[in-house]
Amino acid sequence: MQKVKYLILGAGPAGLSFACKLSQEGERNFLVLEKEDTAGGLCRSEIVDHAPIDIGGGHFLDTKDNEVLDFLFHFMPQEEWNLFKRDSHIEIGNLQIDHPMEANIWQMNIDNQIEYLKSIAVAGCNAGIKKPELFSQWIIWKLGRRIADDYMLPYNQKLFGSNFEELGTYWLEKLPNVSFEETLRSCIEKKPYGKEPAHTFFYYPKKYGYGEVWRRMADSIKNKIIYGYKVKMLDVVNRVINNEYAAEYIINTCPWSDFELDNIPYNLKADTNLLKYVSICVEYDNKELASPAQWVYIPSQEVMEHRILIRKNFITGAKGYWKEINFERYKNESNKVSYCNTYSYPVNSMDKPRIMNSLLSSMKLKNIFGLGRWGEWEHLNSDAVVRHALNLVQIIKSG
Question: Rounded mean pLDDT of the chain?
């Protein structure tokens, strides 16, 4: 049995960031196990029609965290990235309006503006009505009936599929109330009002897909990664993987439900199997679209995809676009190039906080740590994953 100090499960952004930070601090006694033949996880890229596609969906570097930027620019210098101002749209009927919707209904005709304003004015959060617990009712309470019916409800139904009714509301607490006054002012003055949305600017590589930075990180520690290795069992008490690798610390960035947990209480193992996730397919279409947006949200139930990314608007020399589609809705009727990812988005189900608090607390007592989108079962962007990885290195090394 091979023994190491740090055993890292998964060579996606979380595992690579943790491993590379260890390496930068002079640690050599670590090993990364990756089931795929290449590194990058959901942020991997492929070349299709002479330009990149990010096979896990749209991923961008959009953070104001200078330590994270410096860390990533160490592997792929800043001059190799383009900086874009975000231009994302929402497709409502035959019209595309800017995101976020509540700040841009002034782009609709006057009759629709009036209906949306009336709806916002009586939204539960503005009318002093008690907050509901069900996600579908909470969206109406928070945004008003019209935004909920025309955008948020159908969009989330498409994205989450059969998991839609499992959703809790705890993950949306930071979503601000829609201000009737600011919405009215934007309609009168014909410009958006309110707080600027998060991720207003983002970086994307000039010559490559987003997967390039992770590929380079993996190359920097290539002798410490074993590819094509599937984790099947984790012996929690002894910190052993597949009866082959033992470690002082195990850092798990893989879905907890994707392998067997041995030597843990039955109820904890059963709860782990209740964790929900969404599978997404990414499909390429070579048609040219006129929209200036980098990506477009599509709530219409008549359309298979929930989001499209228009490559030419952030990838130099590219054409066509790619679609993101819940696997339950996906039909590849034209044999188009596509990539399907079983684990794409964690589902914030109502019982997830209880399950993950119990699981991560129990694992931590054994020097096993969950990290990243799947290790923490949180919908974390890649920059947030890097931040968590940098923090975890310091937490462990400081005792």
Answer: 94
